[in-house]
Amino acid sequence: MRCYLQAFLLCMVFTFFSLLYVFNQLASTLEDRDDWNLKEQGIPDRRSHDYGHLLRKTPGLTGLLDREEEHDRERSGSAIKGHSDERSHLAVVACGPRLEETLTMLKSAVLLSKKPLHFYIFAEDDLHDHFRNALDSWPRTVQTKFNFTIYPITFPKENVKEWKKLFKPCASQRLFLPLILKEVDSLLYVDTDIIFLQPVEDIWALFSQFKSSHLAAMAPEHEEPRIGWYNRFARHPYYGKTGINSGVMLMNMTRLREKSFKNDMTIVALKWEEILMPLLQKYKLNITWGDQDLLNIIFYHNPESLYVFPCQWNYRPDHCIYGSNCQQADQEGVFILHGNRGVYHDDKQPAFRAVYEAIQKYTFGEDMETSLLQPLEASLQATTNTYCGRASHLFTKKLKQSIMSVQQDAAQRR
User: Fold this and answer.
1) Is the CB of residue 351 less than 8 Å from the CB of residue 369?
2) Cα angle at 233 between 232 and 236, to 5 degrees?
3) What would the DSSP string read from start to end of 83-135?
4) How many CB atoms lie within 10 A of CB 151?
5) H or E element, residue 401
6) How many CB atoms lie within 10 A of CB 304?
7) Is there a contact between 167 and 132 (Cβ–Cβ < 8 Å)?
8) What are the DSSP calls for 206-245, one per residue?
């Protein structure tokens, strides 16, 4: 009996100190919240004409309207015609030598989208003027399709260096978007190495497929478990059979802010702003892919909250490097190309690089079929000695349809 009593007392002591640790982390997080609120008032770059862009929520997944549309046009240098509630809201985080890659991603979004766009660009301070000058230099007819706001990289004051260097510089900024963009209801986050092969509004439409429990959407990390990373090497919980990839992520920001998340640190469900730091502290020695691993852990414990979309919305070299393994892309083509591992800038996957360079070199205003699609198809013909090159017809299948649709729409407006 004495042994059972001692074991019970030891369990109680262990539980007490575990809870004490977790609540100490929460206290630190909550202590920073007032400081965050003050900083958030000044997050947009106040040196520029695009600061202070505020949005208000209206019913519906895309219900975001400008409070002062005319004032916003003057600040952003870009005007949107038509109804603001038709916008797709796209966020990207750029640090280091990612300027040109990010601009190419934004260019692909503008080229193929028919509905207006709003870009939320989070970048290091020395990149702000470069982004502003580049976007303001695009033709006026192109600028009418989008507007943009530039933000500095912003983390909670606690462990700033740890957050900033997690996996890649500034990559973990995406975890804090719901806390920074408090007036934004829904958002599409993409990595800088994304190329849109069809309109942004098509992936935005997936919000309409969310159930009431869904608050984010991502694609699986792998389709084939035999080459999966998480199921073979992860030292932490992960979503589903092969994990999820966060390079393309739909976020219902309102639901993310409101939900209390189950976790393995305490029996108490935690809000988004409360869970991030304790999660990092617990798993920082066991994670490899930084913030993506933290998202996998969160949705492992809250699987009902994630909508999983097919691999064609986040097509990476892993889907073709050992032979084609994205069935949906085989059937319908690639919708969004994700050139991770730097494949746009080396010779390892020339098919991916060919798509990136075709978008990058295209000049606004030229015929997209003769100046973009046909040169791209010629370049891809030279990549058929690689597995991904043999699947490159999937890269142009949806792109061809998107270009035809944009051109038909332009012809009708003339």
Assistant:
1) no
2) 115
3) -GGG-EEEEEEE-SS-HHHHHHHHHHHHHH-SS-EEEEEEE-GGGHHHHHHHH
4) 22
5) helix 393-413
6) 11
7) no
8) GGGG--TT--EEEEES-S-GGG-SHHHH-SS--STTT-EE
Residue count of the chain: 414
Residues contacting 375, CB < 8 A, separation 6+: 358
pTM of the shown model: 0.82
pLDDT per position as a tens digit, 309-352: 999 999 999 999 999 999 999 999 999 999 999 999 999 999 99
Query: Does residue 270 register a pLDDT over 70?
Result: yes
Q: Which residue has the tokens 């591992």?
A: 341
If DSSP codes are grouped into helix, strand and coil, which group holds residue 339?
coil
Half-sphere exposure of residue 118: CA atoms within 13 angstroms, side-chain side:
28
Cα gap 132→143, rounded to integer Å: 12
Question: Smallest Cα–Cα separation from 182: which of 70, 257, 71?
Answer: 257
User: In terms of C-beta density within 10 A (0-12 exposed, 13-18 middle, 19 or more buried), how is residue 343 classed?
Assistant: buried
Which stretches within 268-349 are classed as H helix? 272-283, 291-301, 327-332
Residue 315 DSSP one-character state: B
